[in-house]
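Hi R.,

Here's the chain you asked about this morning:
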Amino acid sequence: MKILILGAGQVGGTLAENLANEAFDITLVDNNASVLDELRDKLDIQTVHGSGSHPDVLRRAGADDADMLIAVTSSDEVNMVACQVCYSLFRTPTKIARIRSSSYLMREGFFSKEHMPIDVLINPEEVVTTNIRQLLEHPGALQVLDFADGRVQLVAVKAYYGGPLVGQELRFLRQHMPNVDTRVAAIYRRGRAMIPEGNTVIEADDEVFFIAAREHINAVMGELRRVERPFKRIMIAGGGNIGVRLAQAIEPFFSVKVVEYSKARCEELADTLHQSVVLNMDATDRERLLEENIEQCDAFCAVTNDDEVNIMSSLLAKRLGVRQVITLIGKPAYVDLVQGGDIDIAISPQQATTSSLLSYVRRADVAAVHSLRRGAAEAIEAIAHGDAKTSKVVGRAIGDVELPTGTTIGALVRGERVLIAHDDLVIETDDHVIMFLVDKRQVTAVERMFQVGLTFF
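And here is the predicted structure, written out as C-alpha cells:
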C-alpha cells in the first residue's frame, strides 16, 4: 500500500516510523527540509520538500497512484485543501485529515464529497480526552481501551501486594469470580512479555492486560490490586483545547478545578464551563496549590502544552498528596523516563493519534486498532468473514486456530453478546475477534489469517 503523509511533526514522524516498520511504501511531505533529512536517514521512507497543499508538490510525492493520504500538518486549512486537491486532481481513494478547530467540527455535513471530501477525521484532543476520562472512571488502571463500541474493554493494571490473585495461578481467577468471565491477554514482568497459561502465577508489580465486558472491569481490577475508592475531586492543569474538553466531559460527574496561567484564558473558561472552578495561577506554585487543598484531590491531570510544566507540576502534586497523577507528554522519548515513578501515567498524544489511524491501513477487515507499550504491542478488533472452506478462522474452535507467535484471542463479540475466549469456543462469520499481539511484527501474519480465500467471492 502506498501512503502519503503530510506533516513531519511529532504525529507525522511517529506515524511514518510505525508504518515504515511494517513495510508500507511511505512518502513524507513537509516544509522543513532538515526534519525530512533526519527522518529519511533514520527510516526507510521517501521524502518531498514543499507545501502539502500544493498540487505540484503532491504530484512529485506520488499522489497520482497513492492509496491513502494522511494529512497531519499543524494547519487545519492545509490538511483540508490537500484532501480537496487529492480528491479533485488525483482521485486518491482514502483521505484522512487531522482537524483540531471546533469551528469546523461543529458544522454538520461539512465534511462530505459535496463540500470537503475527507473520509476520516482525526482530532488528537478528542482522542486524548477520551483516554483520560476512561482512566478517571477506572481508578488504578494504567490503560483502558474500548472495543465493539465500548461493550468490551482491554485494561492494563499493575498487580500489587495484597491483591487476592497475587501469588496464585491464573486458573483460580474463575474460582474467585464464578459470575464474571474474563481472560488475561498478556503479562509484562520486568518489561518482558509473557503469554499467560492457566498455571501462570501473578507476581506483585506485574503489568497485567485483561479483557472483559465493560460492566465487569472494576470487579476484575479488584482481584489484581487493592480496591481503589472512586475518584471525586479532580484538578486539571492547563486550560487549552485538551483541558477545556476534559473539564466539559467530566464536570457532570466529578468536582473539577481548572488551573490556567493566562488571565484572559481564565475569563473564557469561566464562560465556557458551567460547574468547574477556574483558577488563575501557576500550576507549579506550591503555596497556591496548598491553598487550593491539593492534598484532598484524588487525581491531578497536567495537560498544558509544555512538557516541563506538566512534569514538574505532576511531581509537585504527587508529593503534596494527590492519589494519582496523569501527565501529557509531547516528546515520546520522555514518556518511558517519567512513567512508573512519582508520575503514575504518562500519555503521549502522538501515540494515541497513531493508534486511531492504524485501523485504516490494515489489510483485513479491521474495526479497531490500539497501539500499546509505546508501539511494541498491538490490540486488534478484526471481523471474521467467509466460511470453513474460505477462512482460516471461521468454523474453527479457538484452540484449533494456528495463531502467530505471541498472539492471543481475548474475546468475541457476536451481535450484542460478549463471549470471552475459551479453547472450545467456535468462531462464526461476522464475529468481531479481539486479539492481543505481544510482538507487533506479527501484524501481517494476523491480517493474512482474516483475509478470505478467492472461492468466497
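One quick note: The chain has four domains: 2-122, 128-224, 233-352, 363-456.

Cheers,
M.
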